[in-house]
Amino acid sequence: MPGDKSISHRSLLLGGLATGETRVEGLLEGEDVLRTADAMRALGADIRRLGDGSWLARGNGVGGLLEPEDTLDFGNAGTGVRLMMGLAAGHGLTVTYDGDASLRKRPMGRILTPLKLMGARVIDCVEGERLPLTLAGPADTIPIEYRLPVASAQVKSAVLLAGLDCAGETVVIEPEETRDHTERMLTHFGADISVTQDAGGKRIVLKGRPELKGRDVVVPADPSSAAFPLVAGLLVPGSEVRLESVMVNLTRAGLLTSLEEMGANIARENLRELGGEPVCDLVVKASALKGIEVPPERAPSMIDEYPVLAVAASFAQGDTVMRGLSELRVKESDRLAAVAAGLAANGVRHTIEGDDLIVHGTGEVAGGGTVETHLDHRIAMAFLVMGLASKEPVTVDDGTMIATSFPAFAGLMKGLGALIEEAVA
Ligand code: S3P
Question: pTM score > 0.90 for this model?
Fold first, then answer.
C-alpha cells in the first residue's frame, strides 16, 4: 500500500522547516506530495530523494523560510496548497499559488479567512478567491483563537502552521474532530502543543516560535488508498486480500466502521504502532453486504471514502443512506455529483436529496457505463473497483489523475487479478 498522503505532505513541510536531518521512510511518491517537495525546496529547504520512498529533509528552523522566486504550482493538490499557504503566510512571505483546472475551482476562502485575521493580505486573485492568487504574510503574525466553521483538517492545519512563526499562542477550536496528523507531527518535531477536550469540542493550543528539530518519520499505509483494494476484496466473489500496515487512527477509520456495519468480513491483525500512528494488517474476505445508515457525524473520519463506499453500497442489499455530504462538493471534483453520475451510468438506482446520497442497492450492478472523472483520482479508482464486480466492465474517461495519490494502483490491482485495459489516445 502507498504511504499516507496527509502524513507525507506534513513530513516534508515540517522536515523542511526543522533544523537538522529528517529521514522519511515510506513517503508517498504521488504527484501531490512531489509538488510539496518542490515547493519546500523553493522556500529554501534541502529535500532529497535517497531511494524508494526514502527521503531526507533539512531546514533552517522556524523563521528560516525564504520567499520563492516563482509561482508555486500545486497541480491537483488541495492539501499541499492550503497547508503551504498557512506556513508561508505565517512566515511573512509573499507567495503566488496556482494549480490545475480542478484546484483552480476549489474554495480558498476557508483558509484565507483565518489567515487574514492573523494579518495576511490577498494581493491578487481571481473572482471568488480562487487560484491563482498571491498572498502576503504580515511582518508580525497575529496570534488568534479560531473556531473552525467547517470540519476541515486542512483549515485547522493551515492555522496551526501559520502559528509557528508567531509570538504568542495560536488556538484552534474544533467542534467536530478531524484527522489529527498535524498535531501529532508537530509534537513529534518538538513543538509545544496541547490538546484538551470539552463540551465545545477539541481545543488545540500551539506556542509560537518553537525550536523544531529534525526527526525520523515512518509513513504508514494510507487508509484512503487501501480503501480501493479493500472494497474490491469484499465485492469480488472468492476474494481474500491482506493489506499490510494500514493506518487505523480513529480520525480516519470511518469507512472500516461503516463496512463492518454492512456485514463486511474484515479481520484486524497485528495491531501495533508505526511512526506514532496505530496500524494493523487488514484481512478482507468477499462478503454479502447490507445497506446501512451512515451517521453524518462520521463524515470527517471518512470524507475521502464516500465514492468507494457508494460503490460498495451499490452491491449491497437495501438502501445505504449517507447524509450531510456538503464537503464532498468541494473536493477534487464535486464528488457528490460525480458519484451520482457514475452510479447512473452503470444502472445503480440512487437518490440525491440536497447534500444526502441514498444508494438503493440490489446486490448486483449492471455496469457497462463510462464515468466522467473530472480530474478526480478517487472517482476514477472507485468506479474501476465497481467494474471488477459489475456484470459489464466499467470505463473511466481518464485514469491519469490516479498518479496524484496512488501511482501503483493499476499494477497492484492487476496483481490481485483485475483486468484493466488502458486505451491509447
Ligand atoms: C486532508 C484533509 C481532508 C481530506 C484531504 C486531506 C488533510 O480535507 O479530504 O484529502 O491531509 O488534511 P478537508 O480538510 O478539506 O476536509
Answer: yes
Atom of ligand 1 at shortest range from CA of 179: 12
Catalytic residue among 304, 319, 376, 398: 304
Q: Where are the alpha helices (DSSP H) in 266-330?
A: 306-314
98 lines ligand 1 (CB under 6 A): no
pLDDT for the residue 128: 84
Residue where the block lists cell 520567499: 67
pLDDT digits (tens, 9 = 90+) for 138-158: 999 999 999 999 999 999 999
Share of the chain above pLDDT 90, in %: 96
Determine the Cα angle at 105 with ends 101 and 107, to 5°. Answer: 145
Which among 371, 380, 373, 424 has a CA at the least distance from the CA of 402? 380
Please answer whether residues 320 and 294 qualify as being in contact, where contact means their C-beta atoms are separated by less than 8 angstroms.
yes
Query: Under DSSP, is residue 164 helix (H, G, I), strand (E, B) or coil?
Result: coil
Can you list the domains of the chain with their CATH numbers?
5-207 (3.65.10.10), 223-415 (3.65.10.10)
DSSP-assigned beta bridge partners for residue 146: 172
Secondary structure (DSSP) of 315-348: TSEEEEEE---GGGGGSSS-HHHHHHHHHHHTT-
**Burial letters for 107-121: b for 16+ Cβ neighbours within 10 Å, e otherwise?**
ebebbbebbbebbbe
165 catalytic? Reply is no
